[in-house]
Amino acid sequence: MTTELKDKPPLGRVIVVTSGKGGVGKTTSSAAISAALAKQGFRTVVVDFDVGLRNLDMIMGCERRVVFDFINVIQGDAKLKQALIKDKRLETLSILPTSQTRDKDALTKEGVEQILNELKTEFDYIVCDSPAGIERGAQLAMYYADEAVVVTNPEVSSVRDSDRVLGLLNSQTKRAETADAEPIKAQVLITRYDQSRVDIGEMMTVEDVLEILAVPLLGVIPESKAILRASNVGTPVVLDGPSAAAQAYEDAVTRLTGTELEMRIVEERRPGLFRRMFGRAT
Ligand SMILES: Nc1ncnc2c1ncn2[C@@H]1O[C@H](COP(=O)(O)OP(=O)(O)OP(=O)(O)O)[C@@H](O)[C@H]1O
Ligand SMILES: [Mg+2]
Q: Ligand 1 pocket, 161 CB below 6 A?
């Protein structure tokens, strides 16, 4: 599949992973989604827009390989190919790390546009890991996006912030400002879902979340210890052996690439889970 795709011009789709609220799973999801896309044979780069925090390279397990970063390229101190890190596990996956600078103005709109345009000539998918909030950094991460994955936890404050982000996607982005452009395709990814807490009314149901946000559902990622285990060893969860979370991310990415797949909630520790997972045809 990889070789087959390499002969074709790159798709160059820009996907922003955003949320509004902090700590809901954007970086975890960016890593998992980009690794799953690369596993499916798509040339994929994941870009860290969270200037100052620089979490993505740790989750991807390449923090010791960072020499130049996104900001160095924008400032003309390095070429893009000097800053891109090729993943050691998947030849179709690259990472563009960011800098730990405190200067939040280091990212510029023109710089971001230039780098994204260059990445589009080489990659099928450009996954942008957004910082939290709805300020400048988050707005820059979404500005040039073609699609958005809005990461939401099933609780009121997270859903409310995601709703604000959906408002921004529809108003403050290049596609929103361009008269004849298709709007950004936004989909919600519910993460840290715990059925037992939903059952006792401690967590919102999937239906409640969707009723408020009114955008299509990309997938439901369960609360899972596999996430912590994977991030501790610097491996995106989809490359860290079978788990409910990995399966749920793989399903979401299959949908992201346009393949119809029945929605299901894959859970940890529930009877039948492993049968379903290992029995899968792919
Ligand atoms: N499905 C999950 N199950 C269990 N823990 C999870 C899950 N998803 C994310 N986490 C944990 O939640 C924490 C926050 O995740 P992450 O860093 O991906 O969030 P974020 O939205 O990128 O945060 P920030 O807004 O600070 O950038 C991490 O400790 C991560 O391991
Ligand atoms: Mg993050």
A: no
Average pLDDT in the chain: 92
Determine the atom of ligand 1 nearest the C-alpha atom of 191: 1
Helix axes 136-143, 156-169, angle to 10 degrees: 60
At 6, is the pLDDT very low, low, confident or very high (cuts 50, 70, 90)? low
Per-residue pLDDT, averaged over 9-27, amounts to 96
Confidence of residue 281 (pLDDT cuts 50, 70, 90): very low
Output the six-digit token pair for 142: 């979404």
Helical residues (DSSP H) of 155-217, grouped into ranges: 156-169, 174-177, 195-199, 206-213
Q: Using CA atoms, how far apart are residues 37 and 45, in angstroms rounded to an integer?
A: 10
Task: Tell me how far apart the terminal alpha carbons of the chain are, to the nearest angstrom.
Answer: 13
Report the nearest-CA residue for atom 29 of ligand 1.
228
Pocket test for ligand 1, best of 227, 231, 247, 267 (most atoms within 8 A of CB): 227
* pTM for this model (two decimals): 0.94
Average pLDDT over residues 160-173: 97
Please tell me the number of Cα atoms within 13 Å of 134 on its side-chain side. 17
**Ligand 1 pocket, mutate which of 17, 26, 28 (most atoms under 8 A from CB):** 28
Q: In what order do the strands lie in the sheet with 13-18?
A: 85-86, 93-96, 44-48, 125-129, 13-18, 147-152, 185-193, 217-222
Average the pLDDT over 246-271 and give the result: 88
How remote is the CA of residue 77 from the centroid of ligand 2, in Å? 25
Name the DSSP class of 44. Answer: E
Q: Which residue has the tokens 């596999």?
A: 226
